[in-house]
Amino acid sequence: MQPRRVTHSSQPQPLAVLFDLDGTLADTAQDLAYALNQTLQHYGEPMLPFERIRPVVSHGGIALIRLGFDMAPEAAGFEERKRYLLKVYENNLCRETVLFPGMARVLDHLESRRLPWGIVTNKPAWLTDPLTGAMGLDRRAGCVISGDTCSNRKPHPEPIQHACALLGTKPGHSWYVGDAGRDIEAGRAAGCVTIGALYGYLHPDDPPESWQADLTIDAPEQLLDLMNDDSTDA
User: Fold this and answer.
1) CA 217 to chain centre
2) 97: left (phi over 0), alpha (psi -120 to 50) or beta
């Protein structure tokens, strides 16, 4: 299956590749769904099927509590429930989390070509660092930028610009891969080639058609096709 292109202009081959974490690099949905359902059970609410939770997990604890309890963030008890959820998640970060199928091959390919890669996520460092450590990604990634690493977080371009600086590349020579509109907005503002991950956690209120990504892929291994595409500029 060939990558579906949303722009007809040729894209430069990358000197570095940056990935969003949840829903792009790693399939974290099962563990976040577990945390939400444990929270619902603790507060006497019925648990939700995984299919309802998966599209929401990239949007963080606020979105999960809103989904599970039908509560607004300013409602009494919202913060308490969110803290409980995040504590459960912290204690169960890597029960079932794995790289998306095909992503291990992508990372091996980048490393074999000595192309640096990194992670830029809105997940706070107190969750990002133990998760990437448990998966062995911290020893491989050229940089790991969390939601609280910089003064701003996505969709602001600063985290991606900071990641490029750490990898020693310019944004114009870098690709950013993400599964949400804020990822693509941040990557475009930073000056990267942006790639929408359609295999990720697509929220119905954030359709890929609105992202304006340079390219989209239906599976991680399609990145290898793009990196070997003779129609792109070297």
Assistant:
1) 14
2) beta
CATH topology classification for 4-27+97-227 = Rossmann fold (3.40.50)
Residue 83 CA: distances (Å) to CA of 77, 80, 89:
10, 5, 10
d(CA 48, CA 218): 26
Domain boundaries, the chain: 4-27+97-227, 29-90
Q: Are 27 and 43 in contact (CB under 8 A)?
A: no
Residue 192: CB atoms within 10 Å: 30
SS3 state of residue 223 = helix
The owner of tokens 């974290």 is 28
Quick one: CA dihedral 106, 172, 218, 229, positive or negative? negative
- Using an 8 Å Cβ cutoff, are 8 and 15 in contact? no
Query: What is the value of pTM for the model shown?
Result: 0.92
Per-residue model confidence as pLDDT tens digits over 7-63: 333 667 899 999 999 999 999 999 999 999 999 999 999 999 999 999 999 889 999
Active-site positions read 20, 22
Residues 220 and 63 sit within 8 Å (Cβ to Cβ) = no
From the CB of residue 70, how many other CB atoms can be counted at a distance below 10 Å? 9
Structure letter (DSSP) for residue 124: -
How far is C-alpha 185 from the geometric centre of its chain's CA atoms?
13
Instruction: In whole angstroms, give the CA distance from residue 58 to residue 234.
Output: 33
